[in-house]
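for the recovery benchmark. tokens below, seq after
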């Protein structure tokens, strides 16, 4: 278990862990060659990682004359991370091993009222975490102030001004918490599954009924403070009547991307996924929603100028809708960007928010710049 007084892993140890996760078991000499570190340096770091339980040794392998080399690999059987996700009306939690594989099932508890949210999260964390928990990842919708240990604004807490995370930290005991919003947690998973050594700037956009969020990765590093294209694309407002958003505004893109907005336009009252599955270009209400979404997305892309836009949504299963939306976005991009920006689809519908929160914890282990999400222990 990572003590609250123990610093985050040094950069070179993170590098060794990434190489082993990517390539599998390697000897210390092979790590020296891959990591371009001195043999003695590799030996010292591997010894520390073995002591912490992050690595384990495998049986020695004979490789010609001389002493057999002992491969080391990520230890997936001793320690794990826990992901806890705060969502509107529920809290999820699960365990992942150090390579991101689910251990057991996803645990979920309902939240009767928003004021109970943090208490429910405490109860679930106490149930899932144990002495083998190395790090806890906590995600929530909305704004998180890690310095003040507070959730400032969240759809899970629509009637609350702020929610303190101090009691969650107390339940975690000596374990550290990596805390961020749900889009950064999702971006942490995408980064580790798709680009282990990223060189691109990427905007991830999450679309679901009544939900729209985004995250910006700059060469694999999260842009923690970016507002435009960073993580609050859903609260970009357009001059159109919608239901009032929990943030207090009317016209938020998160409210446009909803079945309620289609009802306002005169469409049949159905889940948005059902409308998307039936879309063939002939529904004026859907065309209006796509037009407005494309305006907001194109403004984000024109401002950020990413190499890639990743649409994370169950909607991407349906080509007519996806192709129409992406075509409308491209038509509004600056000419120099229209052919330069790649669009990638990632259907995360089957994966839980709690699992993504676990990937946030893994990112804080493997990537030093993601360790900024780890809350510092309270003084005294």
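predicted aa per position
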């Amino acid at each position: 278990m990572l003590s609250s007084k123990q610093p985050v892993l040094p950069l070179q140890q993170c590098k060794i862990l990434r190489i082993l996760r990517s390539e599998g078991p390697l000897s210390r000499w092979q790590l020296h060659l891959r990591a371009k570190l001195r043999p003695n340096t590799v030996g010292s770091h591997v010894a520390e990682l073995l002591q912490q339980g992050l690595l384990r040794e495998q049986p020695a392998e004979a490789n010609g004359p001389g002493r057999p080399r002992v491969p080391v690999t990520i230890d997936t059987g001793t320690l794990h991370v826990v992901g806890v996700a705060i969502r509107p009306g529920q809290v999820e939690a699960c365990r992942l091993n150090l390579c991101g594989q689910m251990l057991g099932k996803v645990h979920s508890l309902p939240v009767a009222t928003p004021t109970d949210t943090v208490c429910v999260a405490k109860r679930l964390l106490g149930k899932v975490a144990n002495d083998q928990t190395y790090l806890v990842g906590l995600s929530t919708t909305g704004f998180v102030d890690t310095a003040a240990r507070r959730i400032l604004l969240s759809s899970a807490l629509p009637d609350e001004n702020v929610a303190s995370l101090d009691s969650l930290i107390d339940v975690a005991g000596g374990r550290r918490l990596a805390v961020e919003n749900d889009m950064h947690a999702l971006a942490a998973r995408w980064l580790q599954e798709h680009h282990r050594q990223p060189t691109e700037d990427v905007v991830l956009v999450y679309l679901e009924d009544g939900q729209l969020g985004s995250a910006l990765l700059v060469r694999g590093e999260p842009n923690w403070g970016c507002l435009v294209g960073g993580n609050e694309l859903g609260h970009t407002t357009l001059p159109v009547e919608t239901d009032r958003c929990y943030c207090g505004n009317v016209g938020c893109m998160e409210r446009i991307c909803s079945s309620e907005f289609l009802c306002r336009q005169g469409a049949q009252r159905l889940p948005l996924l059902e409308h998307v599955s039936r879309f063939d270009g002939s529904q004026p209400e859907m065309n209006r929603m796509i037009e407005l979404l494309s305006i907001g997305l194109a403004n984000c892309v024109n401002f950020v100028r990413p190499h890639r836009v990743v649409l994370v949504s169950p909607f991407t299963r349906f080509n007519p809708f996806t192709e129409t939306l992406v075509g409308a976005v491209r038509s509004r991009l600056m000419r120099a960007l229209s052919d330069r920006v790649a669009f990638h689809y990632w259907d995360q519908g089957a994966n839980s928010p709690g699992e993504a929160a676990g990937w946030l914890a893994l990112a804080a282990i493997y990537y030093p710049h993601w360790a900024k999400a780890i809350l510092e222990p309270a003084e005294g």
